[in-house]
Amino acid sequence: MDKRMKINKRKKKMSYAKWGYILLIPFFVVFIIFQFIPLMQTFYYSFYEYYSIGLSEIGPNFVGFSNYVKIFQGSILKYAGNTLILWILCIIPQMTISLLLAVWFTDIRLHLRATGFFKTVIYMPNLVMASAFGMLFQMLFASNGPIVDLLMDWGWIEETFNINQSVWGTRGVIALMNFLMWFGNTTILLMAGVMGIDNSVYEAATIDGSGPFKTFFHITMPLLMPIFIYVVITSLIGGVQLFDVAQIFTSGSGAVNNSSKTLMMYLYKLIGTSKNYGEAGAVSVVLFVLTAFLSFLVFAFTHRNPNKLSRKQRRLVKEYQLKGGEKDA
Amino acid sequence: MQKKILRLVVGVGTIAALCSCGDTSNVSGINTDGTNEGDVLNIRCWNDEFQGRFRSYYPDYMETDSDGNDILRDGTKVVWTITANEDNAYQNALDVALKANETADADDKVDMFLMEADYALKYADSDYSLDVKNDLGLTDYDLSQQYQYTKDIVTDSNGALKGVSWQACPGLFAYRRDIAKEVLGTDDPDEVQQHLSNWDDFNDVAAQMKDKGYYMLSGYDDAYRAYSNNISNPLVNDNDEIVIDPMIEEWIDTTKYYSDMGYNHGTTLWDTTWSADQGPNGKVFGFFYSTWGINFTLEGNSLADPTAAKELGNGLYGQYAVTEGPASFYWGGSWLAGAKGTDNPYLVKKIMQTMTCSRTVAKHLTLDTLDYTNNKAAMEEIAEDDTYGSEFLGGQNHIALFAKSADKIDMSNISPYDQGINEGIQTSFADYFAGSVTKEQAWDNFYTNIAEVYPNLQRIED
Amino acid sequence: MLSSSKSLEVTRSEKPENKRMKITFDKAAKRSKIVVIIRKIIVYIVLILLSILCVFPFYILIVNCTRSNFEIQQGFSFTFGNFFLYNWESLFSDTNIPMAKALLNSLFISLCTATLAVYFSSLTAYAFHQYNFKGKNALFTFVLLIMMVPTTISSLGLLTLAAKYNLIDTYYPLILPAAASPIIVFYMRQYLDSVMPKELVEAARVDGSGELSIFHRIVIPVLKPAMAVQFIFAFVASWNNYFFPALIIQSTNKKTVPLIIAGLVASDPTTFDLGKVYMLMTIAIIPLLIMYLLLSKFIIRGVTLGSVKG
Q: pTM (2 decimals)?
C-alpha cells in the first residue's frame, strides 16, 4: 500500500514538473526569436561590409574585423567619452542629492512634514516622455526662448545665445534633464536601503554621541554601500544607452564639435540614416561587451557571500573585540 | 450614368488643359485616357511648397478633406506624405517605399515624389523613377518651353528624362531698399548691382554696411550656393573620392573673415533669428535667395504682423528689391518624378503636364508668387511687359532680370552626394565660424560625419 | 510611605552635582534642539528648491500651451492665457501633424505591450516558483543574465529580421518581444515567493483543476497588485519608447507620439506656431503625469517592492 502511494506520489510530482517546462515555453520561444536570434544576427553583421548607397545595397561581404578597426579609428571613442562625461555630470549631483534626501526622509529626529508630497514631486519627472522633455528644453533654451530672454533681461548676456554652440552648456542641460528624471527614483531606492538598516544601530550611535555627519559617514554609508553600488552601476548601464534626451535636444546633431553625441546616437545614425549595418553591428557588439561587463559587476557584487566579511570589516571586528574585551575587564 | 458624365467632364477638362500644350499622340503602351487607374494618388515630398501650388493651380483639385487628403474632380484621393529632410529622413523613407512599390497595396503605392537638385541625380539615375516620355507619355512639344538645364539635371546616363520641374531657380541677392538708400545712396536695382557685381566690390560694401551699423549678411550659409554652384568639378569623382573645389575653400575663408569682422549676424539658415532678420527688426542688408524663396519665405518673414494683410505698410513689404549679385548661380528647385510601379501613370502625367508644361499655369504662378517658372514663353511675356512690377519688390520687374540669365544656368557639376556634402560642410564649419573649433577640426568633423552618411566615400589624403 | 520617597527625590535632585548635571543636560538638549531646527530649515529649503526645479518646466509648459504664438514670442509669463482651445483645435486640425492618430497608435501599442509583458512574465515567474524541474536554477540564472543586457543592442538584428519577414512598418516587432521581459519575471517571482502559499495550489489540484486554470483562477488574483504596478511601468516605458519605433515605423499615420515629436524637431519647431508646439508637448507629457499623480503612492511603493536586493 505504502509503496504504491509512494510511486503514485512520485508520478504526480514528475508529471507536475513537466508543467514547469510548459509554462516556460512562451517566454523562451519569444526570447529566442525576438532577442537571441537578432543578437546573433547583429554579431554576424559586424563582420560584414553591408551598407546602402542611395537605392542600391553594397554587401554583405565578409570583411573580418575591418568594421571594428574602422569605428575605433573613427569616433567611437569620442562618442564613448561624451557618453561617459554626460553620465558623470548627471550622476554626481544625482547621487549626492539622493543620498541626502534618503537620509533626511528616514531620519525620525527631523520630524519632516509633507514627505509624501515631496516624494511625489521628485519622482514625477521619471514618467515624462524623454523625447518630449528634450523638446521642451530645446524650446526653453532656444536662442529666442524664455531662458535666453530672462538672461538678457537680467543683463547676464548681451546678445542671443545659441546653446548648441556651447560644449558645456549643452552637456549641462542634458545632464540636468537626466538628473531631474532619475534622482527621484534613486532617492526612493536609497530610502528603502536606509530603512533596511536596523534602528538599533542608529540608537547606539546617538548614545555614543555621534552627530549627523559622523553617523552618516561611519554608519549609514558603509551599510548602504551594497545598494549604493547597485544603483550606481545600474545607472551606468542606463547612462551608456543615453539617447532620447540628447538626440532631441540637439536635433540629432550632437551640438558643436559633436561634443554631445552619444554612443546610441551614433548607433541610431548608422542604422537609421546611412543603413550601414556592418558598422552598426560592430558598435552594437561594443555596447554589448560594455553592458555585459557592467552587469557582471552588479551580479558579482550582489550575489557575493554576505557572511564573508571584507578585509576591512574583519579588521574592524578584531579591533572592536580587543577594545571590547578590555572594556569589559 | 454618373460615371459617363464624370468621364465626359474629365475628358473635356483634359482637352482644355491640353490646349495650351499641344497634341498628345498615342504612344503605344501608355495609358492615355485615365481608365483603370488607382483610386489613391500618393505623393511624397519634404515640405508643403508643391502642395500649396497644386491646390492653387491644378484645375481638377476640388477640396481638401479633414484628413488632409485632396479630392479631385473624378473622386481620386491625393494623399500627401511630408517628411522633413533632416537626417536624411525624407530620402530614407522614400527609398524604403520605392523598393517596396512593386509589392505594395494599390492604395499604398508611391505614385509621385519630389526631389531636390541636390539629390535629383540619385533618383534620376535609378530604376525607380519613370521616363517621363516613354513611360508616362509627355511629348517633346510638351517639354519644349522648359529651360534646358532643368532637363539636363534629371536626364539619366542613357539620355532618358526622369523628372520635370515647374521652377527655374536663378540665384539672386535680395536687399533692403531703405538700407541701400542710406548706405549706397540709391535703391535702384541696376545701380545697386554696380556695387555688388563681383566679390571684391561685394566685400567693400560689407565694410560700408558695418560702418553704418548694419550686417551685410545674416547667416554663415547664406552665400554658400553662390560659391558652390560655381565649382569646376563635381564634388565626388569617379573613384568615390570627395573633391573639395577651390570655390568651397574660398567660401570658407570669406565667411570666416565676415564672421570675424562682424559683417554677418552668425545665424544659421532657416533658424528663427535668421527669419527675424528679414523682418522689420532686422539689421541685415540682404539675403541670397532664389526666386522660389521670395514668396515662400522672404515675404512671410518681412511682415510685422503675420496675421494681417500682405500689403504696403505691413513691415518691410515693398522694401525689398532683387539683383543678380556677385556671382550667377542657381539654388535648388524641386522636380516631380513618377515612381516605378505606380498605379496612376495617367494622372501622374497629367499633373506633370499641367504643373510644368502649361504656359497659362506658369504665367499665373509667376504673377501670384513671383517664382520664376519653367516656361520660356511665359517668362519672356512677363519680362517684356513694361507694366509688370511686383508690389512686394517695390514695383520691380524681376522676371526681366532673370529671363536673360536663366538660360545660361549650368548644372553639369552635380553629384548624387551633393545634399549630404553641402549639409555636412555647412554644419561642420558653422563651429569654425563661431570660433569653437579650428579649421582642421572642422574638416575632421566633416569627414567623420560624411563617413556616417555615405560610407563609400573616401577622403583624399594630402 | 509615599511622602517619604517623594521627599527623598526632592532632596536628591537638590544636590549640587545633580543640579549641575541637569543644567548641562538641559543645555545640551537645547543645543541639539537648535541644531535640529537649523537642520530642518536647511532640509526644507533644499526640498522646496528641488520641488521648484521639478515642477518649473511643467509649469511653463502648461502656461505656454494656453498662450498664442504671438504671446509666447513676446516672452515669459507666469500667468495663463486664453488660447488653450485655440491651440488645441489648431493642433488637431493640422493635417501634417496626425496627433489624434498618433495618440491612438501609442495607446494601442502600449496597452498590448504591457498586457503581454505582465501576463507572460507572471506565467513564467509562476513556473519558476511553483514547479521543481531539472535545470530550474540554471534557467532562472539565465533569465537573470539576460535581464541586464538592454534590448536596444539587438535592434539591428531585430530590424533586419523584421525586414526579412515583411514586418517593417507593422506593430508586431514592437509588441511581441514584450512577452519576454526578464525584469518583470524577476519582480513577479520575488513577489510570489513572499505571498503565494503552495497549499492553495495543492488544494485546487485535489479538487481536480487543471494547471492553467489554477494559474488563472487562483494565482493571478493573488498577483493583482504586483501586476498592476508592473503594468503601469510597462505601459509608461512603451508609451515613451523612441529608439526602436523610430527605426521600424515608416508611414506617417502609423507613427507614435515620440515619433511625431522627433519629426517636428527635425523641421525646426521654433519657426512654427509655438502655441501648437507647446500644446503638442503638453499632450505628450501631461496625461501620464495626471495618471501618476492619481496613483502616486501606489507607484512609488511599487518601485521598491521587489527591486531592492539584500
A: 0.82
